[in-house]
Amino acid sequence: MSFATRLKSLLGIETKAVSGVASPEAWLFDLLGATPTLAGVVVNPWSAMTCAPVACAVRSISEPAGSLPLHIYKKLPDGGKEKATDHSAYKLLHDAPNSFTPAALFRTQVMADALLQPHGGFALINRVDGKPYELIRLDPISQSIAVDYSELEPTYKLNGRDIDGADLIHIPTPAYDPRNGLVGEGREAIGLALTLERHAARLFGKGGRPSGMLSTKGAQTIDSLTKIGAAWKAAHGGDNSGGTAILPSDVSWQSITLSSVDAQFLEMRNYAVREIGRLFRVPPHMLMDPDRSTPRSLESIGQEFVELALLPRLKAFEQELELKLLTPEERDQYCIEFNVDGFARADLLTRAQAMSTAVSSRVLNPNEARQMGFGLPAYEGGDVFENFNTSSAHAGGKLNGNDNNKQEEAA
Fold first, then answer.
1. Sequence-ordered list of residues with C-beta below 8 angstroms from that of 126, at least 6 positions apart, any chain
2. pLDDT single digits (tens) 6-33
3. DSSP H or E run through 62
4. Which pTM was predicted?
5. For residue 68, how far is the Cα from the chain centroid?
6. Using the 8-state DSSP alphabet, how is residue 330 labeled?
């Protein structure tokens, strides 16, 4: 101990080592996105996507966001709405946000960024004469985005330059602490899954556990043990495996069996998958891990996924688009919404039954049902709201101002 160190100790002066590469502190790991988990692996948005359950959960939410139709609607005085195809931002959201990115890919990527990245996903709004002209997704690999929450209204820096928040579409992360993001908050669960996955790869790729063991009597030199191992592999390895082994008198074979802990390795991997499903609120069957103990049907579980996992993310997407792409005056006249009815298009029978019920109950007329459910053109006379299955609702019935009884008496 040096004299200066002893003097500081006597005076009660506390010294702290400077955080650096040699002795990094926790905040430096967090700054570089390289905080190791208790399992010993580093989890960040890119390493997390190498974990199959995480990739499946992210795609289960981001790909529907890209595939569902997204429209700008004009609000009608009677409470209804119609597509506002003449709005300047309609084609940006429905067709293509710019000259090099389809709308579906743009929404998929921004939603995936929101689930993986700290702070969420970002897109730049380029305006011409005050109107949105194109939307460009900001790739977190090549674009540095800093968000400051110290004030009531967050401020942004893009590549070190201040940028107005009105020119950024910011789809927030669902994490409680946006500085960590969902991956940062769930890094221990993801790290466990990565560790188990890598252990399994090493087990089968490098022979992490031998199938058996050769033992010899007496002392052996390294050279003699090498020759015994090479002879065994030559006689029983590759295409010769499974044959009958003939051993010298001083060599014996002992099979190595799996312990009870090893037998539970697959259960641990399944548990890790379910932990990641809890993190992203995705049911097991969406992660290709069907739960046979659940008495409910997959349809009801799928509906639960739509309501609890997908719709909150879509609603956050919609409201951010309305806030940044519509003026305060336009928000009273227009709204931006995903058409979640697209989920029913894969089931023709369910779609036909729903449209038939809507027409019979006069919620929709036949032309509306044809367009909404099947994308078919209107036909003459299909705009009338009537139930063709009852005698009082057809064109000459009571619900249309005539009395069938009087018509039958006159006849």
1. 132, 133, 134, 135, 136
2. 545 655 544 444 444 444 554 444 545 5
3. helix 52-67
4. 0.72
5. 15
6. H
